[in-house]
# Entry
Amino acid sequence: MTEFQEISIEEMLEIENAEVKQPKKSISQLIKDRKGGITNSAFDLDVEMFEEQLQLCEWPNESVIYDEINNWNFATPTKECFDRTEIVKVYARLNAYRYRLSQLLGHVGRYYKVASTAQKSLKETAHSLYTGTASERNAQAGYRVRPFELESLYAEGILNFLTETSKALDSMFINLSANLKHIDNLVRVNHGYEDEGIALNYSDMQNPPDETDNGIGFHDKSSSGIRMRTRGGN
# Structure
């Protein structure tokens, strides 16, 4: 049984410093190191480079993303809803979903882009490492880069789901805008009727009708001193 050995803080720091990785090479230096052409060792370095880039992107957890979006409230008012305040609340909620969706699209999109690029690029490079017919070389190259292909397919499925959700959100915003426009049109029509009613009421107040015994009145034009001509002559 191995005995536990106590070490000092200084010794721990020395161990950590010894485990520190070498500084990363510049892109120009990496390109210069590729003068020797494509070899299995060079191909393996490419695989490591793509893997490092993929690890820089956070792995998209499909179940977590689906659960989050399934808990969103996509209920929108119908065209019979004339409450502008309620429509504005729904608009604000959907706008928050749109912002979150853009974050998820960017996150999954980066992962998919790196994985798909790695699969295509490495497959092209791997062709030169094998001999035989074109179909045999293609099969060997595809088999060698299969892990990147699977990561690309996984991310692509999530990306399609997020894209379709984004399209559905756009349709909801169009419906909300139509609701608000419908309310504005009704308000404009009501104001028009209101103004017309006020104008008619004002006109009646300026020219009130004369009352008779039968409740029907006409203006007495002779009261102004003007003689009226009739059909029978003077």
